[in-house]
Amino acid sequence: MKKITINDLIKCKQEGRKFATSTAYDASFAQLFESQEMPVLLVGDSLGMVLQGKNDTLPVTVENIAYHTKMVRAGSPNCLLMSDMPFMSYATPEQACENAATLMRAGANMVKIEGGRWLVETVEKLTERAVPVCAHLGLTPQSVNIFGGYKIQGRDQEQADKMVSDALALQNAGAQIVLLECVPASLAERITKACNVPVIGIGAGNVTDGQILVMHDMFGISANYMPKFSKDFLAETGDMRKAVAKYIADVQQGTFPDDAHTIA
Ligand code: KIV
Questions:
Q1: Which of its termini does the chain have fewer beta carbons within 10 Å around, N or C?
Q2: What totals of helices (H) and strands (E) does the chain contain, helices first?
Q3: Predicted confidence (pLDDT) per residue in 1-26, tens digit
Q4: Which of 49, 181, 225, 230 to mutate to test the pocket of ligand 1 (most atoms within 8 A of CB)?
């Protein structure tokens, strides 16, 4: 696989070519994903749940993410690698810059942060200092205690309008990717059309430019819970490489997620 940059994803958006992405946490799986030409990998703070067995992502530290970022980078030299900034690691723009530097030095090409308009200054500071940013909106798991659970976001008109304007504010501040989690497909479509930057969805229908899955869900091996919008591609294909190839092909063809894996 050739080295993937943000320009390749912008070209995908402009040409209407959908792309698949996945979480990854170690070198072996990163290599497997790269062998199937997965263009983007995310070292997600979901590692708190799928690797560490915790109930949520809040205990994950910058050191945890940096450790797994080094492993994933070792296995996939060519993917565009995003790394999550964990809970409270970007509470101020200054903290964000310091912690993002640790993740970029570990091998990330971009950091992902969760939240809306309050992050505008942080996104500006990071991008001015050469740290590309992905803005994660919708069901932002670090806010689980504010939401009172893992609930679909953006169902009512006011919330939906706010999410559209947050996405645009973050894009205008410099965010190079927007990621939407667990929002109605109609809202995801609005945001994807409104944004110039690539929009990646999870639980947001097949209307976004890209899709992401937590790899343990893709293989049907998550310890606690399989979200309704995820699909066990390993059960369908019986082989890990084929499962990854099928996921990528289904996303590219727009057949995943189908109606059964979409939030109306
Ligand atoms: O941490 C993670 O894996 C994520 C994905 C669910 C997008 O943020």
A1: C
A2: 12, 8
A3: 999 999 999 999 999 999 999 999 99
A4: 181
State yes or no: pLDDT of 114 exceeds 90. yes
Residue ranges around ligand 1 (CB below 6 Å)? 23, 42, 44-46, 84, 179, 181, 202, 212, 214
What 235-242 contacts at long range (C-beta under 8 Å, 24+ apart), as own/partner pairs, is 240/32, 241/32, 241/35, 241/36
Burial letters for 230-246: b for 16+ Cβ neighbours within 10 Å, e otherwise? bbebbeeeeebeebbbb
pLDDT in tens, 230-257: 999 999 999 999 999 999 999 999 999 9
What contacts 220, CB < 8 A, 6 or more positions away?
226, 232, 233, 234, 235
Residue located nearest, by CA, to atom 8 of ligand 1: 44
